[in-house]
Write a structure and sequence with these properties.
It comes from Rhodocollybia butyracea. InterPro entries: F-box-like_dom_sf, F-box_dom. The chain has about 120 residues and is an all-alpha fold. The chain has six helices and no strands.
Length: about 120
């Protein structure tokens, strides 16, 4: 009967290997499905942005808004480069900003007292 037990053990080992293989395939499939799900969620975000009200504003009005914001320096994050801030938002805003020389002509550079002191020390 030891021969019969050995045969059963071989069968069990074979079954265990098949289960491991099946588990690996299923785990791989789960990873693939999760990655597809993530891509679909990103696509939904992109599609929702197409319905954003700002997308309905004509380029001419958008330019006037940029012009006003840059003229009044309303963008405090980059106070010396408001045109750069505006043109960094998205492709459409970049194209509108690049087509306007008015907002780019207002770029200014201000040196703080600290930077001029550093400059004097290096001289």
């Amino acid at each position: 009967d030891t021969k019969e037990v050995e045969e059963m053990l071989k069968d069990v080992d074979k079954d265990l290997e098949e289960y491991e293989t099946e588990i690996s395939l299923l785990q791989s499939r789960i990873l693939y499905i999760k990655s597809q799900q993530t891509r679909l969620k990103e696509h939904v975000i992109d599609l929702r942005s197409l319905n954003s009200p700002i997308r309905k504003v004509p380029n001419e009005i958008l330019f006037r808004i940029f012009d006003y914001a840059c003229n009044k320096n309303l963008l405090q994050e980059f106070p010396f480069l408001p045109a750069m801030s505006v043109s960094s938002v998205c492709t459409r805003w970049r194209l509108v900003a690049l087509s306007s020389s008015a907002i780019w002509s207002r770029i200014s550079l201000e040196l703080s007292p600290e930077s001029s002191t550093l400059q004097n020390c290096k001289s």
